[in-house]
Specification:
Blueprint: H1 4-7, H2 12-22, H3 27-37, E1 42-45, H4 52-62, E2 68-71, H5 78-91, E3 95-98, H6 112-127, E4 133-135, E5 152-157, E6 160-165, H7 173-182
């Protein structure tokens, strides 16, 4: 059987219509549609620090052949890497680890945007080449920069369509935790120590009572996103 995107053009209008139809469905149903529609050209990116655990578990039940991409910046908490190894084995995931093209040193101290660009955005830019659909765990309730995400979105990648899929878009943080508890899934231990969003250790702190979920990321810098989900695709960063 020919896949849907081989017989129907991927257009902003078509993807917007899918978004309206999928918005009320359970994340499992959204994943099933995605894996069937973009079979062989879809991947899931997971940081092993939050809601991606839910998607990794669902993937393991639907189709373990779908690759899971993990960006290793070189600055992850040890607990993050330990959880990645644990879930990879427990769920039988096909994890592909992405790394920076070069090490710029502690650039996070002077230019956190460029640090994220080199350590996260560029490795993902390279890894995206064979894929048409990219699944990740963004949710609308995570903060102002994400409150408008749809379950499926059309993006242009240098004249080539990239379909971004957010199965958890309509879920709340409470629903994510309910799923983790119901399925007895391991989760990041720092979440029990006041952290609500976890990235690289130099740029992550525990959140204070009343703060938003992502308030502990790049605190005091005016930065709220690493760039993975907000960048305009461009020529990869190269070593100076």
């Amino acid at each position: 059987m020919r896949r849907e995107h081989e017989t129907t053009l991927i257009t902003p209008q078509a993807i917007a219509e899918h978004a309206r139809r999928l918005d009320s469905l359970h994340p499992r149903s959204i994943l099933e549609w995605t894996f069937e529609t973009f079979a062989g050209e879809v991947m899931l990116s997971v940081s092993f620090a939050g809601g991606g655990i839910v998607l990794a578990h669902l993937l393991s039940e639907i189709d373990r052949r779908v690759p899971v991409l993990f960006v290793d910046t070189g600055f992850h908490f040890p607990e993050t890497l330990e959880l990645k190894d644990l879930l990879t084995e427990r769920l039988g995931l096909e994890v592909r680890t992405l790394t920076p093209a070069y090490d710029p040193g502690p650039l996070y101290e002077t230019d956190p945007d460029r640090c994220c660009d080199i350590r996260k955005v560029e490795p993902m830019h390279r890894a995206l080449e064979p894929f048409t659909a990219w699944v990740s765990a963004l949710r609308r309730d995570q903060g102002p920069t994400r409150e408008g995400v749809a379950p499926v979105e059309y993006h242009d990648r240098g004249g080539r369509p990239l379909v971004k899929v957010y199965p958890l878009a309509a879920w709340s943080r409470e629903e994510v935790w309910r799923y983790i508890r119901e399925h007895e899934l391991p989760y990041h231990p720092l979440l029990d120590r006041g952290y609500t969003s976890i990235g690289c250790w130099p740029c992550t702190r525990a959140t204070l009572p009343g703060e938003g979920e992502r308030a502990g990321r790049w605190s005091g810098t005016g930065k709220s996103e690493c760039g993975l989900h907000t960048f305009t695709l461009r020529a990869p960063v190269t070593e100076p």
